[in-house]
Amino acid sequence: MRRWLISPEIGALIGAVIVWAFFWGNGRTFGEADTTLNWLDVAAPTGIMATAVALLMIGGEFDLSSGVITGATAIQIGLVSRFFMGDGVNIGWAIGSAFLAAAAIGWFNGFMVNKTGLPSFIVTLASFFTLRGVMLVISKRLVGKVQVDQITEQEGATFFKNWIAHEWRFTEFAIRDNVFLGLVFVGAAAFIYGLLEQSFIRRAAINTVGVGMAIVGLIAAIGGFTGLLRTDGVGNNALFTIIALVGVAVAIVGTALARWVTRMRASSDGLPPEATRRLGLGIGCVALACLIPIPFDRRQGQAILTWTSSGLRPVLAILGAIVGIVLAIRAILPEMREKKKTASGFGKLTMFAIYSGLLVMTLLICFLQLTTVQALRAISMLILSGAGLTLLMLARGIAGRGSKKWQLIIGLLVAAAIVVLAFVIRADSGAVRFRTGLFGAMMIGAMAIAANTLVEFFMEKRTHADTTADRLGKRLQLIGGGMAFTGLIIRLVWSNLTPEHAAQVKAAGGSVGQNVLRQTVVWWLLVAAIGSFVLVKSKWGNWIFAVGGNKEAARAVGVPANQVKVGLFVTVSLCGCLAGTLIALRYGTVQANQGTGLEFEYIIAAVVGGCLLTGGYGSVVGAGLGSAIMAISVVGVQTTPWNSDGRFAFLGGVLLLAVLVNNFIRKKAQEAR
Amino acid sequence: MTITEDSLAAADHGEHALLELRNICKYFGNVTALENITTRVEAGKVTCVLGDNGAGKSTFIKILSGVHQPSSGEYTMYGTPVHFTTPRDARNAGIAAVFQDLALAPLLSVWRNFFLGVEPMRGILMRSAFMKKTAKEEMAKMGIDLRDVDQPVGTLSGGERQSVAIARAVYFGARVLILDEPTSALGVKQSGVVLKYTRAAADRGLGVIFITHNPNHAIPVGDRFLLLNRGHSLGDFAKDEISRTELTRLMAGGAELEQLEHEIGIR
């Protein structure tokens, strides 16, 4: 766990998830298959280059000509195939010549850096301007304008387009729903069974009543989910939802009863007063959260606090949110302190992540909706229901120390409260995504809590180690968790636009794209996989790290430092040529200033991905995530009603945040040794 | 031709020292860097080379480790004359130098540093499990228990970092270990740690050349002392041939120091 936390790409991973979730919640079509393919397509060329640039940066150097080389090679392909080869000669020769030229430029960069000892950004800046000048002069001289076209009309271009820059078109992802359901269902079942296997004592003989319950529950669950699928969407059919979830809970309890030893009934004590107080407060909070929507109508869009100046409103909103969060944390803090001795580092970190996530989300809502009635409603509901459920869970924990019976009752009460809140939100929320998604998540959460409470009530806890059961449980958890996670990702990322939704989007002035998967994405994944493999698993990766971290030291132990650097510069140029070839084949037309200025995007992607600017540390996977973050924000902004120029400000914030999170986590994790 | 320490050791019959220098001189043009240096390094013994700044210690190391070639004089291993033209030759012959800057990459993990430049491979894969295990074991042999070989070398203390470099040299078959000012950048306690590991390396049968300008560090570990001053040898003594006071006096420049004391009025 800790090793994972100190890895360089952790900041980028968190950033990518946050950015994705942000646009998923706010963008009208974000998260549909076409937008996903769209941002993958935008990310791919940046990702190919960011891989190479990250390797170079880990090796301690920069390449400012990395952007312009993509354009230069594309232009070279166009010019060579049109003017320097006879008619009918295959464009493959032009592509080959571009790769050779790129390798030569990379070698020259590396050679000059090694030979002169100048900082690499000076040397590569010179290459940048030279290439740019040569590109402009030659294309103006030969074509008479600053763009080279008709590339795809050359001999053999179709062949290369099909094999290097292929496009796969999909009309729909019909199997997606079935795959999602199957994966999540089987994965969750394996996960839960593994969990049970780890905590309870096996029976000598299997209990038939339990088996019966399990079978009935399973049938109900499958029936319920199938019904849900037929009615399309989790939020549309409350009856099937409830059948499915009750079925799951019954199946879990039945399985537990069938396989493991039940508990002796102990005499139960009364409810301790501190639990009573929290129980009362919790019920009150949840009730209030359910009542909040009545006075504040969600269709009432105007701002409250009309007497304040508009500049003051966001400040007030943010202050209010901070006060709310501080109060909530203060309520929970003593509890956290108490648990500190037993809670693992992971547990604490999870709590921290949840609370900071809540804070960021609330602040975002405040800022975006600027103290409208909806914002007030959303925030007060969020805080009240969150506080209510936390209090109820605390009451359950306290009651559980004295009385198992009260633990059962309060546990079921928590589940019931979540179900009620879910229905309130479903009936009342404005956003389709949150309405269906949040409803489903809350129902599943309620089911999990109910099943957990029941199982804890009926079953005897295992205190001794049982190696086979533990190992089986752990494996099942790992496999099941992985399956369910994959299923969820598939569902979230590749969902199809329903016809009604598509019509809505078109009516609102948005565009509905096509499902096109370009081979660039495949190249990206391939380059990133090779780069990551070389960096982490091979000796050359070790050398790259060492050359960037301490060049003299590396040389002293026999690492060919200069060759490593030249190799890295050549890699960057070759990747640039790959990107340039893909551009030339895709559009058939290349502007002479193609790629200029992109070198900073590559560097930003690498830095967001955790590469140190000073070299010697970083990751290729992180650079890939960095390019994904940038692509998601470019494409994501287009799916929202906001001005898409704002993405630059957004990118700036993400860059700063990712680096800060990176440093913070790395520091924490290294302190913990 | 590659000289390996094993072939030399096999040819010898235990009558010669591991490494011997006789009347070594080094000139850079008109400049005399070293003149008539004679000393010996025996297996399991520590030879300390003492000298102030500019005494020729660096040149001495560079000759030993094959960076420079002596202008004249005899350089033998097990009684056989050797001529190293590159550092790689010296390394192949079992002479490992641990330099002041340690040749470690601070952000790289301990096990990656340990095998840097000589990574064991299976096909195109590094044998990382083997590398981690070996690094941990070798550090344990030096008396350092690393909980996590994945931690960056930069998070280790100065003394521990030295010992990573020493353990690495020992593991890769060094017979002669040259330590260049290993204590100069360290505090009192960390210096003690390094001295302990230096002794530990010698006790494992290596010949150690310990270079320092601090006689207080040399005396506890040294079996033989070579004193340098401006490229000349002030003497080459076995431990029982010289007293601590005499060593300190010679090291500090002898008569020069008395002159200095007189000038600034120390009594």
Could you please describe the fold and organization of this structure?
- The complex is a heterodimer of chains A (673) and B (267).
- Chain A has 673 residues and is an all-alpha fold.
- Chain A has a domain at 2-170 and 508-671: ABC transporter involved in vitamin B12 uptake, BtuC (Orthogonal Bundle).
- Helices cover 74% and strands 2% of the residues of chain A.
- In chain A, helix 2 (10-26) packs parallel to helix 24, helix 4 runs antiparallel to helix 5 and helix 10 (238-259) packs parallel to helix 16 (432-458).
- Mean pLDDT of chain A is 80; it is low at 341-349.
- Chain B is of the alpha/beta class and 267 residues long.
- Chain B has one domain (5-264): P-loop containing nucleotide triphosphate hydrolases (Rossmann fold, 3-Layer(aba) Sandwich), CATH 3.40.50.
- Chain B contains ten helices and twelve strands.
- Chain B has helices spanning 5-11, 57-64, 87-92, 110-114, 128-141, 158-171, 188-203, 215-221, 244-251, 255-264, and strands at 19-28, 31-41, 46-51, 72-77, 80-81, 95-98, 121-122, 125-126, 176-180, 207-212, 224-229, 232-238.
- In chain B, the strands form three sheets. Chain B has a six-stranded mixed beta sheet with strand order 6-9-10-3-11-12, with helices on both faces.
- In chain B, strand 9 (176-180), helix 7 (188-203) and strand 10 (207-212) form a beta-alpha-beta unit.
- The N and C termini of chain B lie far apart (59 Å).
- The mean pLDDT of chain B is 81.
- Classes of the chains: A mainly alpha (673), B alpha/beta (267).
What characteristics describe this protein?
heterodimer, A: 673 residues, mainly alpha, ABC transporter involved in vitamin B12 uptake, BtuC, two-stranded antiparallel ribbon, 2% strand, elongated, B: 267 residues, alpha/beta, Rossmann fold, six-stranded mixed beta sheet, globular
Summarize the structure.
The complex is a heterodimer of chains A (673) and B (267). The two termini of chain A are 13 Å apart.
